[in-house]
Amino acid sequence: MKSVLVALTGGALLLAALTVAAQPQLPGAGFGRGGGRGGSGPSDTDTREYDKRDFSGLWSRSPDQYQLTPCPECRDPATWPGYGFFGETPPLTEEGQRRFDENRPSRGIELGTPEAARRAEIHAGYRRAVLPAFGNDPEMRCEPLGLARLITFAGIGAAMEIVQTSDRMVQLFEWTWDFRDIWMDGRGIPNVEDYLPRFNGYSVGRWEGDTLVVTSTGFDDRQWLDQYGFPISDQAVLEERWERPSPNRLRVQLRLIDPAIYTAPWDSSPKVWALIPKEKMAIGGWSGILEDRCVPSDESLFNTFRDRAAGVGEEGAAGGE
Amino acid sequence: MKRLTGMSRRSSGRARVLLAAVLIAAGGAFAHHGSAISYDTANLWTTWATVTQFNYLNPHPTMTFDRMVGDGEVEHWVAEILSNPSTMARQGWTRKRTVDALAPGTRVKLSLGTSRAGGFSAIVMRMENEAGEAIGGGFAGPGATDLDGVPGGLQPTGDAVLPGEEAN
Questions:
Q1: ipTM score assigned to the predicted complex
Q2: How far apart are CA A219 and CA A236, in angstroms?
Q3: Does A8 sit within 8 Å of B143, measured CB to CB?
Q4: Fewer beta carbons within 10 angstroms: which end of chain B, N or C?
């Protein structure tokens, strides 16, 4: 071990140190309901006047990627093995457990390792990662991610944009080039029996003070709640509470109510984004989010390499440009 | 955990934790498509290689390359790239620039983690051209060992079942 540690590059040490520095060490400051395991205090020191009900713009949870001041509270705490819904997972129903067991994620702590055993304080869903070649994550087939997964991934690397009008808010997600709309024209939640299920559901929003409260229903139950294979049913209701606590921060707390799968409502950990000026999110002078699609034929090519790494599919690692 | 051969070394749990921390620190740039678990990223090695194919595609670029291991013997490798097109583009590595820099026949120095299943399959953590300039961003983690010309590089071996393998 000593030789390995000695061999660590300066860059690795620096990055590791930055990681430790960037990870919130304390619970959140009581944001939202349930609290979850929120980030540290706000890092935005901008004192300019702003409209707390204007969420429009480009948002990222990694502002340092755009040469902006880092946002420690934008990161999920190091308690968690990556990014996801998080918070305290309620006990699963019998049906929920059956579906949970069917899902074999490839993110999180590797199944069967000492670390998986050591981290028994977190849900088993975060401690069961298998090689992608042996998993069944729908993302690995370019299937739609679904709303909660889009939100909880948005901004980690790929960005999110919000376009807002007087009666509608549209969220555009860079990874998978997907979107959802939130209607704020006073319409009610639809009777989902009358509509086809959607991966991103049907969403209506209303203002409670400066908090936008969004309710979504009508989900396609083939999606995973997040990358750890937590299931969701077509009867699920997702509540979101969005706030803009400072000029350059956007924050949401999610609550999943899905009695077919979970025995109690599940509150996520808070998610925080940083506002990215459009001139900072530009390539060759063209600003905005990228068309970061998951293209099935590209994914299939990638999977020939992925499978080869698992000792299967020895043929086929060719093609492309 | 599979046993490792190829040179004297030990997998270090601490090194793995540190590498994981580095990958997390790098955020989305290295939010790999779940595949990092397929490779031994705690024991990285470097080698000169010749690009035979490069695919600038989602979810992560892929490539094939040859490496000369002596007496004219050539190994043919397949590999994933750690980064992804959107991150690379934002770092200035747009499609054209990257594809031009990695045209077939280009000699590059690669930092690799070999697949845990063994064989000539790897994840590329970092690439450099013959002028020593980094190509496409990326990161070389702890303990990268120069194995230019050493047959097979660092090849995991052993009979342990890889996570999830028993279900298939």
A1: 0.85
A2: 7
A3: yes
A4: C
